[in-house]
Amino acid sequence: LSGLDPAQPYFQDTPIEVRLDKSDAEFVDVIHTDSAPTIPYLGEYSALLTALGHLDFYPNGGKQMPGCGKNPISQIVDLDGIWEGTRDFVACNHLRSYKYYSDSIIYPDGFLGYSCASYDVFKTERCFPCPPEGCPNMGHFADKFKGKIKNDFQKLYLNTGEAKDFALWRYKVTMTLSGKHKVKGHVNIALYGSGGNTRQHQILEGTLQPDNTYISFIDAEINLGTVTNVKFLWNNNVLNPTFPKIGAATITVQSGENG
């Protein structure tokens, strides 16, 4: 039984008899996409943030979904038509749950959820990579993880894209810089693999200090497969007459899926 952003009003903190609960089926997975505070008289009903099933997924933290803060006009004048656009504008976060679910059918290897105490912890190294038993897939293929559930409730975190296709694949990038002098600027990385290439992702901004090691995460728009190349680009934010040079001594890329 899959719960797609189950509603909060009149169900929060109620007995399990009247709300979605893991006792409702042999396997219950839940996608939480709209658990910001409720605004009851504006028709803005938020969803339950409480863990309810055997696996509870909180994409993007479960509150505000990427792409839902767009300009109202551009959102209403949608590619799918005025009706779809208006509906998305009014209940964008809520409706993301079924859109993620339908995308998960197309990407059976995507939407990996990382078991974590919170979304803030998910952004650190503490929940990366997946454990030896793997990470469950949010959506249609969540039941592949049915026999591997250890905890009473399992909260899982991941990031998604702003628009279809929503699936992303998480990689950890560890980079040691080379050069003679520190400079201000930013670093972009593009990854190349047997499964395709990513766009450029900014992984560092501010002071670039040679010999320092920096760790960042990339949520790539494709499953890279075996990584073959890394493109390193840096830029200083202001014109520097000394023409400083910064390079990458080493770059290590680690897949979240298999470590």
Structure description:
It is a single chain. The chain is built from three helices and twelve strands; from the N terminus they run βββααβαββββββββ. The protein has 259 residues and is an alpha/beta fold. The chain folds into two domains: 167 residues, Rossmann fold, CATH 3.40.50.1820; 86 residues, Lipoxygenase-1. Strands 1-2-3-5-4 form a five-stranded mixed sheet. Strands 7, 8, 9 and 11 form a four-stranded antiparallel sheet that branches. The longest helix is centred in the middle third of the chain and has 25 residues.
CATH architecture annotation of the largest domain? 3-Layer(aba) Sandwich
Sequence of secondary-structure elements: EEEHHEHEEEEEEEE
Please estimate the helix content: 10-25%
Instruction: Please give the largest β-sheet.
Output: 5 strands, mixed
Straight-line distance between termini? 30 Å
**CATH homologous superfamily name of the largest domain?**
Alpha/Beta hydrolase fold, catalytic domain
CATH topology of the largest domain: Rossmann fold
Lateral strand order in the biggest sheet: 1-2-3-5-4
Total separate domains: 2
Query: pLDDT under 50 segments (min length 5)?
Result: 38-47
CATH C-level of the largest domain: Alpha Beta
Could you tell me the number of beta strands? 12
Beta content: 25-35%
Helix tally equals: 3
Rg result: 21 Å
- Oligomer status: single chain
Structural class: alpha/beta
Shape: elongated
Mean pLDDT: 85
Protein name: Pancreatic lipase-related protein 2
Main location: other
Enzyme class: hydrolase
Organism: Anhinga anhinga
